[in-house]
Amino acid sequence: MSSRIAHRFSLFSDPDVLHAMAVSAAACVFSAGLVYVAYFVLVLRVARNAPCVPEHGQCVLLFGKHAPRGRVDRDFDARVERAAWLWRECAPHTLVLLGGGPPGVASEAEVARAALWARGIAVDAPLQLEAGSRDTLQNLRNARQMLAQAAVPQNVSRRVTLLSSRYHLARCALFARQLGFDWELCAAETRLRWSPGTLWRIAGEAAYVCCTDLGTRWARLIGSRRMLARVT
User: Fold this and answer.
1) Could you say which architecture CATH assigns to the domain 54-191?
2) Which residues belong to CATH 3.40.50.620 in the chain?
3) Closest CA relative to residue 28, chosen from 213, 228, 171
4) Is the pTM above the cut of 0.85?
5) Going by C-beta distance under 8 Å and a sequence separation of 6 or more, which residues neighbour residue 18?
6) Which of 213, 218, 199 is closest to 40 using CA atoms?
7) CA–CA separation, 37 vs 22, rounded Å?
8) Helix (H, G, I), strand (E, B), or coil: what is residue 224?
9) What pLDDT, in 10s, does the model give residues 15-62?
10) CA distance 199 to 43
11) What digits encode the pLDDT tens for the residues 145-164?
12) Strands across the sheet with 127-130, in order?
């Protein structure tokens, strides 16, 4: 079993995750699917409307993507290309590359760094690597710890720019809000690509966001500190 599959299996076999899934599934069933449709529309709206040029852009968090054997797919390539464009146009004060990987192979953050170097970013550019995470929540939780330990000049905004694929941004925003970030979105692609594959990804993200958001709301309702600790 690969480490990626093992990580997902550990998530979906966790009692708190199963609890959240049961709550969200019940909400969708008892609403005749309307709850899920609402989250689908939310994810789609974020994907369509997210800007590709950040308002602040002084601290950019670049989300990685699964890159088996270092191979970068179209989505990952678009994320790196947008980060390189931002660096050329107005180099951010901080650029954090997010994403780990299995032992013995290059992490997602290292793959992104190599791709940025290949695009002409200087080898000595101050890139920060967060290579210990395996999912979006871990990405942001580890980044929060890194940024909390870093010295930030007074004239630099503490707002973070979340740079990822359009279909992924609603999930990034949800976790950033729950973790207490001051955040803005930046889409890797200039515009949303309308294709069956994109809609399939948005459908999957809607299910993920629905489960996470409703599970968090339920945890607050019942006062479960253990469940809340997983997402805050």
Assistant:
1) 3-Layer(aba) Sandwich (3.40)
2) 54-191
3) 213
4) yes
5) 12
6) 199
7) 17
8) coil
9) 888 999 999 999 999 999 999 999 999 999 999 999 999 998 899 999
10) 10
11) 999 887 666 566 689 999 99
12) 127-130, 94-98, 59-63, 160-164, 183-187
